[in-house]
Design brief:
- The complex is a heterodimer of chains A (about 550) and B (about 350).
- Chain A contains 22 helices and no strands.
- Chain A has about 550 residues and is mainly α.
- In chain A, helix 9 (about 190-220) packs antiparallel against helix 10, helix 9 packs across helix 21 (about 515-525) and helix 9 runs parallel beside helix 22.
- With about 350 residues, chain B is an alpha/beta fold.
- The N and C termini of chain B lie far apart (about 75 Å).
- Chain B folds into two domains: about 5-65, no CATH class; about 85-325, SGNH hydrolase (Rossmann fold, 3-Layer(aba) Sandwich), CATH 3.40.50.1110.
- In chain B, helix 1 crosses helix 2 (about 20-30).
- Helices cover about 40% and strands about 10% of the residues of chain B.
- Chain B is globular, with a radius of gyration of 22 Å.
- Classes of the chains: A mainly alpha (about 550), B alpha/beta (about 350).
Chain lengths: ~550, ~350
């Protein structure tokens, strides 16, 4: 079942009503919401619910065993077993075909025509998301950051339908406390929820669908048949399409959860305003970023073991992040471009820091390379340090410490949570650091000019788009064809670049530059309108969105396949 | 806001959307797969649509469409004009019966000469099966100056539910656009009953096949423009049995093949044999070098990108037989891995002119 459909509208109307009626009776509400979530998940293929149930039982058993185990060695072994079980499930469903194909190709290239058995394995929707959530639960129990919760709580946490198939990747420590007592039926942040849902609907049904059908799909399905400008604008179009598609799902998920009384962390924060790749990863798919940081990058050593190891960890993290999206070399290259880009940014930042130190003639430890053995969790830190003076520079001794730059302030917004009412939750480590150490500032000399900021933004956006060529292409040869045309196919006609396409790209990027206060004011005004009029306006919005881009059906969200 | 008020907002929003876009709701319902959910949606959508039309609540939606300059494919449709006799058998009109004898080898009218300055314009269209074939054909046509390929797929469509997407009306639009030739594949979504005034014709039944043949004949007749425009109708390939039974697919293909024999200018291209392995469905096809490759997607119906190449090559080879768009001495794109049995266009077209 996908969100912008008649089936889901009917489903949600029923679930919303019953959920609030049953909310005071928690013993009934939890089985109800669990059953509703399993219905949601099994609507397309009921067999997949067995997989979800198996994952729940495996991880709950693992978490309890880890919690009860006496010795550290046994705890580690149990954790290892549970993680392997999760990765085994993920690997079997998601990567078996890729593995067989790659091994088969390799064998053929050396003249060994012995193909491995090929099995047709259907990929269960959302397996990457709920597997990652379940793993984080067990690892957090192992780290003694949380206690195992009851089976019903964990089952609801893993299967809760708003986040089940495409995130946000919510942590048990954020969600389970919200299950402890009934939610308040008189205090639903409805205006925010409706804005998120309608904004998501607009992005998905209008912008993403329009760009997909008008330029992205035709060009990337046959790049050789198109001109360089078409490849270029199809790539920009895809950047907007995937943002609109994925952030739309996340926002709708957050909105539906809010209507049911639950709060999720934000997943996107205006990613195409990023001034560096590091900044971008603070804004794009933030819940995956922090997952990779906390459960992959930092365990690998983070930036504690010197520059070379930091570079290796960055690249490894991004390559695995690429593979998380799918079993294909195109995703590996996408991850490689991001990993390499981050290393270059890191190196550049180091270089600038060294120069600054020399100029100041003051021995000052690098902000990028903390002493070995020290886990650097800087303000808003992610799973890699940011080599971006706007967001990362530390004050130099003797320099004035101005207020945080707006870009840094924006990062604070997107560090893991947004919106009111989350104070009772345990924020992500990065967010803790943001709150606890307000030291993000830049020396006066390091303040980038407006032109500098825009140059950074444009360069960053184009590097992201370059990586997207691999991400979107159906295979490696198509991606290389697209790149080939991009460099050679100028001067050919470009009928697919229409004013509508250009407008959609401009709107998709432009809305990210609208100040937050604009949306806040709009939301406030909306909340003051009478409920019946609110409903009328929302209904009109649905009609207009649906009419703007005619459909023969809503395409599934891109991230469903991940 | 209290939950009760939130419920009110949601209910008003959904009711407003239903009333103001009731056609959209019917449209969406028609596109849903057969089953209880679809019946439920349509049971609500049809009365709502009637009510909205009576109250002229569909006016804003229509005006908005006009404002956007969107052309509606409306008008009398030959697909929906099904009349039945007292035994609930569809009564076929003269067009559906076609010519008295099959016109398998009836040539199209004289074809215009093609050149780099006036290249052959071929439209690849159809349901979601065309999503793979169209791009592959476009790729294969790249660099051939005498050939221009356009592609337009309409996923979730077919001949069985014209209320959702009427291929006869869309064929009229294609006819007005006037491409030189049309390659078309339809059928992937047609494994469902055909609604007739007294009920529904069971998919795969004899009556169903007769009505399906009639509908295919109507669309072919419009596309071929009285035999002056070659139409290359691609049959459905074998599908995985639990998705669409093999026997049904054979009934559907027989219906379109018979229709093609009755309409001058239509060439029926057999994809069934081209994609069959040991007479049935297979995920993989031989690659011609002793190995195999994945040709079908996990749903057991659609082609992978690579797998669509066979259909695209077969279609272009059929087009080349009529038009000779390939420069002399260069063969038309041949199916990968050699020509599979039964892959040649059937019936064989006569030379043009």
């Amino acid at each position: 079942m996908i969100f912008p459909t008649i089936e889901f509208a009917a489903f949600f109307l029923v679930v919303f009503t019953l959920s609030w009626l049953l909310m005071p009776h928690q013993r009934v509400w939890k089985p109800f919401i669990l059953a509703a979530s399993y219905f949601f998940y099994g609507y397309a293929d009921v067999r997949f619910t067995l997989l979800l149930a198996a994952s729940t039982l495996l991880n709950q058993a693992g978490a309890i065993a880890v919690h009860r185990a006496a010795g550290q060695r046994l705890r580690k072994a149990l954790l290892f077993t549970t993680v392997i079980g999760n990765l085994g499930l993920l690997g079997w469903f998601k990567y078996y075909g890729f593995l067989v194909d790659s091994v088969d190709s390799a064998l053929r290239s050396v003249g060994l025509g012995a193909p491995l058995p090929f099995l047709r394995i259907a990929l269960p929707v959302g397996i990457s998301f709920f597997t990652f959530m379940a793993m984080s639960y067990v690892i957090d129990v192992y780290r003694r950051e949380i206690q195992p919760t009851s089976l019903i709580n964990f089952a609801v946490y893993e299967a809760f339908f708003p986040h089940l198939v495409a995130g946000p990747i919510v942590r048990a420590s954020e969600f389970v406390p919200q299950l402890q007592g009934p939610r308040n039926p008189r205090d639903i942040p409805a205006a925010r929820a409706f804005f998120l849902i309608m904004g998501g609907l607009f992005k998905k049904v209008v912008l993403a669908e329009l760009l997909a059908t008008h330029i992205v799909d035709p060009v990337f399905n046959s790049p050789d048949a198109h001109s360089a400008p078409e490849i270029l604008f199809a790539t920009y179009g895809y950047a907007v399409q995937i943002f609109c598609d994925f952030s739309a799902y996340s926002e709708m998920a957050i909105g539906f959860a809010l209507l049911l009384g639950f709060r999720f962390p934000d997943n996107f924060n205006r990613p195409y305003t990023a001034t560096s790749l590091g900044d971008y990863w603070h804004r794009w798919h933030m819940t995956l970023s922090r997952w990779l940081r906390d459960y992959l990058y930092i365990p690998l050593g983070g930036n504690r073991r010197g520059p070379k190891r930091t570079y290796v960890n960055l690249v490894v993290t991004m390559l695995l992040g690429g593979l998380w999206h799918g079993a294909a070399w195109t995703y590996v290259i996408w991850g490689g471009i991001h990993g390499t880009g981050l290393c270059v940014e890191h190196w550049w930042g180091e270089r600038k820091a060294r120069r600054r130190r020399r100029r100041a003639r003051t021995p000052y430890p690098s902000p990028y390379m903390p002493p070995a053995g020290h886990v650097q969790v800087l303000p808003g830190d992610h799973y890699y340090p940011i080599a971006n003076p706007i967001a990362r520079a530390r004050p130099l001794p003797g320099r004035a410490v101005p207020k945080p730059h707006p870009a840094a302030a924006a990062r604070l917004e997107g560090a893991g949570f947004a919106g009111p009412g989350l104070a009772g939750l345990r924020p992500a480590p990065g967010a803790v650091a943001v709150a606890a150490a307000p030291e993000v500032s830049v020396g006066q000399d390091d303040q980038p000019s407006v032109v500098g900021v825009w140059v950074c933004r444009i360069v960053t956006f184009n590097v992201i788009c370059l990586a997207f060529i691999f991400f979107r292409s159906p295979d490696l040869s198509s991606a290389l064809s697209a790149l080939g045309v991009l460099f050679t196919g100028w001067g050919q006609p470009s009928p697919l670049i229409t004013p509508t396409v250009l407008l959609a790209i401009a709107v998709g990027i432009g809305v990210q530059y609208l100040p937050t206060r604009f949306w806040d004011r709009l939301q406030l005004r909306f909340s003051l309108i009478r409920p019946a009029v609110q409903g009328l306006l929302l209904g009109l919005g649905i009609v207009v969105f649906h009419t703007l881009v005619p459909h023969t059906g809503i395409a599934p969200f891109i991230y469903f396949r991940f | 806001m209290p939950a009760g008020r939130v419920l009110l907002v949601i209910a008003v929003a959904l009711a407003t959307a239903m009333l103001l876009d009731s056609r959209g709701m019917v449209h969406t319902g028609e596109a849903m797969p057969p089953g209880g959910a679809r019946d439920f949606v349509l049971d609500i959508a049809h009365p709502t649509d009637s009510l909205a039309h009576e109250l002229r609540l569909d006016w804003p939606h229509e005006k908005l469409n006009q404002l956007l300059g969107r052309q509606q494919y409306t008008g009398p449709s030959d697909l929906t004009r099904v009349s039945v006799d007292q035994d609930n058998q569809p009564v076929l009109g003269p067009q559906a019966q076609g010519s008295a004898s099959p016109s398998a080898s009836a040539p199209v009218a004289a074809l215009r000469p093609i050149s780099a300055a006036a290249p052959l314009h071929v439209l690849f269209t159809g349901d979601s099966m065309m999503l793979g074939i169209g791009p592959q054909a476009t790729n294969l046509a790249t660099g051939i100056k005498t050939l221009r390929v356009d592609q337009e797929a309409h996923p979730s469509t077919g001949l069985v539910v014209p209320q959702f997407f009427d291929w006869s009306l869309y064929a009229m639009k294609i006819d007005r656009d006037n491409p030189d030739a049309v390659v078309i594949i339809i059928g992937g979504n047609d494994g469902q009953g055909i609604a007739v005034p007294n009920g529904a014709l069971q998919p795969g039944s004899e009556e169903w096949a007769v009505e399906y043949r009639r509908r295919a004949t109507v669309v072919m007749g419009i596309l071929s423009h009285d035999g002056t425009r070659p139409v290359y109708w691609l049959s459905m390939p074998p599908t995985r049995d639990d998705e669409v039974p093999t026997r049904f697919m054979q009934v559907l293909n027989a219906a379109t093949q018979q229709a093609a024999q009755r309409v001058p200018g239509v060439r029926w291209i057999n994809l069934y044999d081209a994609y069959a392995v040991n007479g049935g469905f297979s995920d993989e096809l031989p690659d011609g070098h002793g190995g195999s490759y994945l040709a079908r997607t996990s749903d057991g119906v659609h082609f992978t990108y690579k797998g669509a190449e066979v259909a695209a090559r077969l279609a272009l080879a059929g087009v080349d037989r009529d038009w000779h768009y390939m420069p002399q001495g260069k063969p038309a794109p041949a199916p990968a891995g050699g020509t599979p049995p039964g892959a040649s266009p059937a019936p064989a077209p006569a030379p043009p002119g």
